[in-house]
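A quick aside before the break. I want you to see a complete sequence-to-structure record at least once, exactly as it would be stored in a machine-readable document. Don't worry about memorizing anything.
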Amino acid sequence: MISRSGLLTRLMGSGLAVAMLVGLTACGGPPTWVKKGSGVLNNKEDKSFYGVGAVIGVKNEPLAWDTAENRARAELAKNFETYTAYLMRDYAASTTAGDFTRNTEEQNVERAIKTFAAVTLSGVRPVDRYKDEKTGTYYVLAKLSLKNAERLFDRLETEEGKRAGTK
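That is the input. The structure line, written in tokens, reads:
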């Protein structure tokens, strides 16, 4: 007979515990990151950028997951560099004809926005995914961790400090 802790150890080793946790999360509704969306997490334990991608209406499940992942990466890219062109045209006219009692007015408002992001991000990886069974929406959470970059900057500062001390 396997003890409860022994069973947990076996499950952890096989990766089933992760699948069970994801399954339990799915039963209780969407994870908090689905509602929170893309952005920056800047606390002591984790300094990262997150992107949430979603797709609905795609029946081919592998294609849906790939699309949601690509959209999550695009959400991350928008945090770094985005070109936006904005144009708004507003036209209004009032015309009076003949006896001045009949007035014709015309209005037209148009707005066009074009957004473009192009950036190369290294180290972006999907860290979680969720499928809303009711709507058929696939969600992927992608993460770009700044921990390695921070560690490198700390090492650089240490080395610069050593150099400054030897001069």
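Two observations worth writing down. The chain is about 40% helix and 35% strand. The longest helix spans residues 147-166. We'll return to this after the break.
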